[in-house]
Amino acid sequence: MIKLNEGWQFTSPDGSEQAVDIPHTWNAVDGQDGGNDYWRGTCRYRRTFPRPDFDPQAQRVYLEFRGVNASAAVTLNGREVMTHDGGYSTFRADVTDVLADTNDLSVAVDNSVNDRVYPQKADFTFYGGIYRDVWLIVVDKDHFDLDFWGGPGIKVTPTVSGKDGTVRVETFHNAEGAGVAVRLVDAEGAVAARGEGTDVTLTIPNVHLWDGVKDPYLYSCEADLIVGGQAVDQISTPFGVRSFHVDPDKGFFLNGRPYPLRGVSRHQDWKGIGNAITKAHHDKDMELIREMGVNTIRLAHYQHDQYFYDLCDKYGMIVWAEIPYISEHMPNGRENTITQMKELIVQNYNHPSIVTWGLSNEITISTKDKADMLDNHRVLNDLVHQMDPTRPTTLACYAMCGLFNKVAHISDLVSWNLYLGWYVPGLFLNDLWIDFFHWKYPKRPLGYSEYGCEAMTNLHSSHPKREDQTEEYQCVYHEYLLNCFAKRPFMWATHVWNMFDFAADARDQGGEPGMNHKGLVTFDRKIKKDSFYLYKAWWSEDPFVHICSKRYAERNEATTAVKVYSNRKAVALYANGEKVGEQAGEHVFTFRVPLSGEVKLEARSGELTDEAVIRYVDRPNPDYILKKGEGKGQNWV
Fold it and tell me: Which is catalytic among the residues 362, 454, 512, 602?
């Protein structure tokens, strides 16, 4: 494989040119500054490359793109070799017969407004560009399939049979009369099973299960294409053997035992970079997610980078994968939902982390043709079951989508995007809503696909309230929801919206337009908000103590509340070396501290400590309060 990421010439709409490397987006800045005025249209990328070293009589060369948003027209040496609609999946074409000694590659990339390619309306920025790797792939003329929906040419379906693993391996190739040799290899490199054929079922005795975050054990499936007694092509894919099911009364089960899914949603963009991120950015995201003790990730609202799915496999995350069929049904976009779903499943089928395919998100927000929308969902649901009978379908419903709405009863599972206690008053409404749904539809597995509230790290209050955008209200909100979910083990999954702040150019909230600030970590991944540590206290076994509201350093009150998050069972607080108190409990510990002058706080639990400094001021600091007219509570719709 030959990477073609370097040495591109980018031409913007005004005709100006600049040298760029892939990954690249032209919306890295204007897609994050608010006003819904970021530039959407067609830009061009161009580069040359020499003919790769190959035998044109015996080999073929493919050109592969792993992510171009949103539509691409690819021209090589003056000939259009492929087009693609959909900004989040892999696509490729055989370009062997077009290659010359020096090759001129040009890509027209279009993220403009239209009525046929998803997404077009949603609460996130649609970055334009070639933002994932570009490759040349040289293979034998007889090779495993590279032409079917961007897939790898191999399909591995594991099941559990007592103590053994049963693994069906299907391979696809273009060589008439060829044979296929298959090996299943364990993590130590030993061959666990062998077989021959394009559709072979093998047994792994005493199989080592892929068992979530505690033991995400991976095997490898290797296949050789045999022509004339020689191996002319080889492919391999990691896989894990696991069983799972969802019980409407008891929640999610992994390998036969209850395994409550509690986790986060993730968008792929970073501040100042947009979606043109590298493996290092993916690694950092996973590092932060794992630190918090998460065991499930909803990868919203589109197909994510294969590298991140690989990380989910490696670290045992349970994944909800979905297509960007979102916010609005477009009758002219039905075919695009089908092709994007086919690509999602074919390209990601072998990932053990994925347990469900998402049909759509908040589709009832602005849909006009409801009958056509419902029909499209039924078609998608049937398609998924046909392509992958091993995984259930799911769907994320809009908060205002009534629980009797027909769309909420098409998929196998359902979750809701509910912000009760944020966009509407009354945190207790979450309890009422969940219990009513479960009473009305006791056989329908229910989850929360989104819940959360905005929090700016510069805004603070000793008396936080809904829509004030303070870090403190985000804590109040999430404290309530965590307790709410703990009382309801029948919920099949809950996913915080969102793990990270992300760009949503149509928004104007918190004094920083162009952003959704519901993340538990800031857009640049530099600040973990206090709510991050609340979830760590609930979910992580890595012991810690954390003093909240450290950024609320100046306070105008004689006595102030100091909150500590910890996963230890007892915490003591000291102020200027004097013990304020010690509490036994779980997750949240709150102390009252007299405030005069500057106070150095120290939280202790055994050998664990955390420190903060607060001080009394004569007047409240106005910088902690959202200024009038700074987008207080203004949503994107």
Answer: 362
